[in-house]
């Protein structure tokens, strides 16, 4: 174990922490100093059960030897090589492996360093694709209320989480939003996909009628909305979106940054729902969260539309210094091998019934107003304290950490997404802990 385990930082002020209540944290820090498989170790030596796979990313569990070794080997051999006008073999191999496992038709990969960058890349590919085909009047992008597509300007423009948008000016123009699909009055305590709400996809027809199809480039949605608090699409909703996009020549982008790599019990949500998008964004689980990386998978026709003009010219003016970084590529390859060897991309399907039963056993616990689940994702929605939104769930988060389980909260919703190596005994521990937490908090 690292000899940093017992070193306590003595000044927490310099690091401005992301998406954190900085002042609260710095008064009572929660420090993680090591991790293995399903557990973190806190700086006081306590083992913390990881109920969230880090931030929805450590799908194979922590510090997996194959991934660690691949990174060590790669960094000693070729630490960095540019991907602009130059190549290195491992990134090509990794792209091929991703295409092999991707839904049919997604045949090309553009590498990024995060989910946010994958989203920006996907939106730019969509706009440039239409223009490359001589259909450049298609400039509108349609997102969805409560959608989370990262924190860059394109992503917050098509995203629909108000707190992430309201401070940042005019955002992108030419953006519209579908309504969200959360219908607690009709779907509360649904197990799996809700019965009601597929008709909400028809709102796309209304938006298209308003702007005219000839101006609409793409629709982007999370197949299962994660960061807003786990909103599962109503039965038939995604198929309907696909049909409407096809009818009007609009590209469909699935943001699979959370749902990719086994989270739902299938390799991708596209497989789970049997709906193939034109562009698919991924990140997080692509390297098991170990090294920053994102990958945007694109249909052949879209890629090919760029491949014209003089051959010495760059076809797509976009890319990052670290696109396809060799160390991230090595981590990604080792991650895919780990997923494959241990059957992790479908393990969620085996455990989903147990997970569902366990979560729904909390139905009558104090404060609970809804429980939702799909694959190895779950959400427990709490009644907010009047006038103090988010406070109750934040107390639950602090209490769960005290009791040795890492959960995640967003608004007044507890979101759960354990590593896919989770055992039934861990599920029991998470649920028992939450029972205690819900009994104890105000
Ligand atoms: C669906 C979705 N898209 C994009 C992102 C942004 O990813 P990142 O934080 O790696 O930029 C996230 C992160 O949670 C996400 O859930």
UniProtKB/TrEMBL annotation:
Pfam families cross-referenced by the UniProt entry: Aminotran_3 (PF00202)
Its name, as the record gives it, is: Aspartate aminotransferase family protein
Species whose genome carries this gene: Chelativorans intermedius
As for family, the record states:
Belongs to the class-III pyridoxal-phosphate-dependent aminotransferase family.
A Gene Ontology molecular-function term? transaminase activity
* Cofactor(s) the record lists: pyridoxal 5'-phosphate
This protein's source sits in the domain of life called Bacteria
Keyword list (alphabetical) reads: Aminotransferase, Pyridoxal phosphate, Transferase
* InterPro entries recorded: Aminotrans_3 (IPR005814), Aminotrans_3_PPA_site (IPR049704), PyrdxlP-dep_Trfase (IPR015424), PyrdxlP-dep_Trfase_major (IPR015421), PyrdxlP-dep_Trfase_small (IPR015422)
